[in-house]
């Protein structure tokens, strides 16, 4: 794969895709999405279709903070481009909240939030896109700064995909942003502070990726023996519409080595399913074979096991569909199994478990399937399925709800038993809803399940906000 690097914007040229920054940084960083530093994971809910100040699809993000019993809608922060301290102004079509990512960028002990607004018009450039940093603190999120876009003339829809972490191994947190156009993957080099200069950046044109779609999704996880970080990139293949997916380590300067092909899909999650110390990857492809040759009837998820050099080529990928023995349901056209995926240890046994959304199940009512990890890898025995018709889950499964369009596994209560949180952006004619199922030693329970929509967290229900179409990355 040929990559074309853009010209450096700093006086001293930066090597393409290799981030260089001062190594000095503060200690005691917070975990991603712990915005108030209380040890509980908070939830960022994107509503990119939200109306703000009368402007349709300006977009909003509602942050619901964790508490001893899980998510608490009574403690929340609403973020729009009309919020005091947030850069920009809410305008029609900005789609603020179309992507989110989190890390403790300034290493002050509070996680910060990155929000993409890929529809933002900048300096007369339609859909140039922008990314906003919102800073964490003991009282939660407040104040913001625009993330530098070094390739302003070469990108569109900057921030349509986001990832944040130490991408180059220097101890500082960096940001990767997907976009369309001649530069479809950009990096901004840490350290990223509230007032200081940005540390530079680099970018590339991934020739195998369609310029029209660009890099549409990013996921980031730990590396392995020879890979500093595992970043999975998604898009559409150049000259067509089919999915394309790669595993990359941005710290590697050799373009022949920094990317490995993965089974094609549109979303992914990274975690250690078999607890062998190497990150594994779940790739979701919800399209039918008639639309994408890499798809499957009803959709599929492919598990790629990790090894010291990225993917473990000695192990065949494991393909899961709703026709796989032990998986609840049956593969039916339009189920969209694999429309969302997330890896996390739901039952505390040390193995990452997989949550899979099937947002098209039962005419778009939607469903979520949970499969558990083990020493031998992902197992299908003991798999569970949840819908709005499952006893204890609030609401009723209805056509078009899209329950499972997004899934998250995170410990919102701080009891080391992660909750399963689900987005259904089609609920209530496009208003959208989020559900959260409490964690137990045996996995999610519907007892005490919580659900809330845009109105409960300050988001307007005018138009179709699609609340829950974006959740923690």
Describe the main β-sheet briefly: 5 strands, antiparallel
Strand order, biggest sheet? 1-12-11-10-9
State the secondary-structure class. mainly beta
| Number of alpha- plus pi-helical segments | 2
Describe this structure in words.
The protein has 473 residues and is an all-beta fold. Helix content is 2%, strand content 38%. It has helices at residues 361-364, 427-430, and strands spanning 3-5, 43-47, 60-67, 70-79, 99-103, 112-117, 130-135, 142-146, 156-165, 174-180, 185-188, 201-206, 215-222, 229-236, 243-248, 259-261, 267-271, 280-285, 300-304, 306-307, 310-311, 318-320, 337-344, 353-358, 367-372, 379-386, 406-410, 419-424, 433-440, 443-452. The two termini are 27 Å apart.
Defining traits:
single chain; 473 residues; mainly beta; four-stranded antiparallel beta sheet; 2% helix
Helices and strands in order, then pairings?
Layout: E1 3-5, E2 43-47, E3 60-67, E4 70-79, E5 99-103, E6 112-117, E7 130-135, E8 142-146, E9 156-165, E10 174-180, E11 185-188, E12 201-206, E13 215-222, E14 229-236, E15 243-248, E16 259-261, E17 267-271, E18 280-285, E19 300-304, E20 306-307, E21 310-311, E22 318-320, E23 337-344, E24 353-358, H1 361-364, E25 367-372, E26 379-386, E27 406-410, E28 419-424, H2 427-430, E29 433-440, E30 443-452
Antiparallel strand pairs: 1-12, 2-3, 3-4, 5-6, 6-7, 7-8, 9-10, 10-11, 11-12, 13-14, 14-15, 15-16, 17-18, 18-19, 19-22, 20-21, 23-24, 24-25, 25-26, 27-28, 28-29, 29-30
């Amino acid at each position: 794969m040929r990559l074309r690097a853009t010209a450096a914007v700093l006086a001293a040229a930066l090597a393409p895709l290799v981030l260089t920054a001062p190594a000095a940084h503060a200690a005691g960083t917070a975990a991603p999405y712990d915005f108030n530093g209380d040890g509980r994971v908070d939830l960022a809910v994107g509503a990119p279709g939200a109306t703000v100040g009368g402007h349709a699809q300006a977009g909003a993000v509602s942050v619901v903070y964790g508490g001893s019993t899980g998510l608490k809608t009574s403690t929340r922060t609403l973020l729009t481009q009309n919020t005091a301290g947030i850069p920009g102004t809410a305008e029609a079509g900005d789609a603020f909240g179309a992507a989110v990512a989190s890390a403790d960028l300034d290493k002050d002990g509070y996680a910060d939030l990155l929000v993409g607004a890929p529809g933002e018009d900048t300096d007369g450039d339609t859909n140039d896109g922008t990314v906003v940093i919102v800073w964490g603190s003991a009282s939660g999120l407040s104040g913001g700064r625009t993330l530098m876009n070094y390739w302003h003339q070469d990108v569109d829809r900057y921030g349509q995909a986001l990832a944040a972490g130490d991408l180059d191994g220097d101890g500082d947190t960096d940001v990767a942003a997907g976009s369309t156009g001649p530069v479809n993957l950009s990096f901004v080099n840490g350290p990223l502070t509230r007032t200081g200069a940005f540390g530079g950046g680099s970018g590339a044109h991934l020739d195998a990726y369609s310029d029209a779609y660009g890099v549409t999704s990013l996921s980031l996880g730990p590396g392995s023996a020879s890979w500093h970080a595992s970043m999975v990139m998604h898009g559409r293949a150049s000259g067509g519409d089919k999915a394309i997916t790669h595993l990359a380590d941005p710290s590697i300067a050799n373009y022949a080595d920094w990317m490995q092909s993965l089974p094609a899909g549109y979303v992914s999650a990274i975690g250690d399913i078999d607890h062998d110390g190497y990150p594994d990857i779940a790739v979701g492809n919800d399209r039918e074979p008639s639309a994408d040759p890499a798809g499957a009837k009803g959709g599929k998820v492919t598990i790629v096991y990790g090894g010291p050099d990225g993917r473990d080529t000695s192990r065949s990928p494991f393909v899961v569909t709703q026709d796989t023995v032990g998986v609840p349901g049956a593969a039916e056209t339009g189920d969209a199994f694999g429309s969302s995926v997330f890896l996390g240890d739901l039952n505390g046994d040390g193995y990452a478990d997989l949550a899979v959304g099937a947002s098209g199940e039962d005419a778009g009512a939607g469903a979520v399937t949970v499969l558990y990890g083990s020493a031998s890898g992902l197992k299908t025995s003991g798999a569970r399925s949840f819908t709005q018709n499952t006893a204890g889950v609030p609401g009723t499964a209805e056509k078009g709800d899209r329950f499972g369009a997004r899934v998250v596994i995170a410990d919102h209560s701080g009891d080391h038993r992660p909750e399963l949180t689900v987005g259904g952006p089609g609920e209530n004619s496009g208003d959208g809803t989020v559900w959260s199922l409490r964690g137990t030693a045996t996995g999610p329970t519907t007892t005490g399940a919580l659900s809330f929509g845009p109105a409960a967290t300050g988001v307007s229900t005018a138009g179709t906000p699609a609340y829950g179409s974006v959740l923690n990355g």
